[in-house]
Amino acid sequence: MVNPMSVRIQIKDAVKKYGGNTVIQDLDLDIRGGEFFTLLGPSGCGKTTLLRMIAGFNSIEGGDFFFNDTRINDLDPAKRNIGMVFQNYAIFPHLTVRKNVEFGLRNRPFPKARIPEQTDKFLKLMQIDQLADRLPDRLSGGQQQRVALARALCIEPDVLLMDEPLSNLDAKLRVEMRSVIKEIQNNIGITTVYVTHDQEEAMAVSDRIAVMNAGVIQHVGTPKNIYQRPANIFVATFIGRSNLLDGTMVMKNGRAEVTLPTGYVAEFSTVRQDPAGWKDGAPVRLCARPEELIVQPKGLPGLKAVVDDCVFLGLNTHYFVHLLTGEKAEIIQESTIDSVIPQGTEISLRLNTDKANLFEKESQLSLMSGVQNDLDALR
């Protein structure tokens, strides 16, 4: 559900410098009102820096930031009406759960008589009303994170900002809390900007994702599109697992034929019809997800490989192989009631060319049709 009062965030030509070091240069971004938008990337890529610029905690050396039509560059953080959830929760250890949640209300021009009612609303929403009188040291990590989220939402902010909020939780709690966060965000319809380096977490909670690297946004799109049709090799290798193989490509009657060093030829019908400046025989990089390399019966033409190891994970079995040319690859196959393929077995692999991706080797940009990069509309 999108709140009709939700705020659109627009960023135009943003610049961030630390001394003589420019960490973000001419960055553009458009975050829709009411959406759950995630900044995803490796440590040091600039995602937290950008979040803190939106919050007003970092200076802005260039560009413009807007909440709807209001330019917020010089607006005091306290006047931006944002809720913030930090990695370390930042809840007050000497205050009860209730007093933590109501803290923001008592520091705003909010009617004092309504504070208990408003606090109760968000204690119940986060399912921590039965913990209202406890101190934080008697709470689990997941409960403390619920308190931090309730406190951020209780002030009814225009924008919710979340910086690696689940990184201190164990794996099981992370899965539980990301479901809670997404459900609450859906119910309230508040514009949410979420920072994480965890690809699975981003895929699970986001309406759209911006993948960042070295202060530059590489691809903006839905989790499905970013995973299936990444804009470049960095996005392809950062989101999920990928096997990269070198090859050469020629175009024939609107189809691409890619020849790998093994001699295996894969035919693609999903390559753009007119790759700019393309010359037949030019080098490409083929990206195949582990599930896009399929073990097939012996005797059929395919990529020849040898099984080095396998890991049984219930529903799926992961095989680690090397091609006869030496390249390493990972394969995911649905587990069967039969025994796993033994180490040292030579196998033949078929490539799912409907799902695999091709990239120009020099530019590292995608050659596939169907790439939807929302960033292109801002350029």
Verbal overview:
This protein has 8 helices and 20 strands. With 379 residues, it is α+β, with helices and mostly antiparallel strands. It folds into 2 domains: 225 residues, 3-Layer(aba) Sandwich (Rossmann fold), CATH 3.40.50; 138 residues, OB fold (Dihydrolipoamide Acetyltransferase, E2P) (Beta Barrel). It has a 6-stranded mixed beta sheet, sandwiched between helices. The longest helix has 18 residues. It is globular and about 80 Å long.
Topology:
Blueprint: E1 9-18, E2 21-31, E3 36-40, H1 47-55, E4 62-67, E5 70-71, E6 82-85, H2 97-106, H3 115-125, H4 141-154, E7 159-163, H5 171-188, E8 191-196, H6 199-205, E9 208-213, E10 216-221, H7 223-228, H8 233-238, E11 243-252, E12 255-259, E13 265-268, E14 282-288, E15 293-296, E16 303-313, E17 316-323, E18 328-334, E19 346-351, E20 357-360
Parallel strand pairs: 3-8, 3-9, 6-7, 7-8
Antiparallel strand pairs: 1-2, 1-4, 4-5, 9-10, 11-12, 11-14, 12-13, 14-20, 15-19, 16-17, 16-19, 17-18
Helix pairs in contact: 2-3, 2-4, 3-4, 4-5
Rg (CA only): 25 Å
Count every beta strand, where a strand is a DSSP E run of 2 or more residues: 20
For the record, the count of structural domains works out to 2
In the CATH scheme, the class of the largest domain would be Alpha Beta
Provide the CATH topology of the largest domain: Rossmann fold
* Shape assignment: globular
The N- to C-terminal Cα distance equals 30 Å
Average the pLDDT over all residues and give the rounded result: 92
Number of helices: 8
Q: What is the chain-wise order of helices and strands? A: EEEHEEEHHHEHEHEEHHEEEEEEEEEE
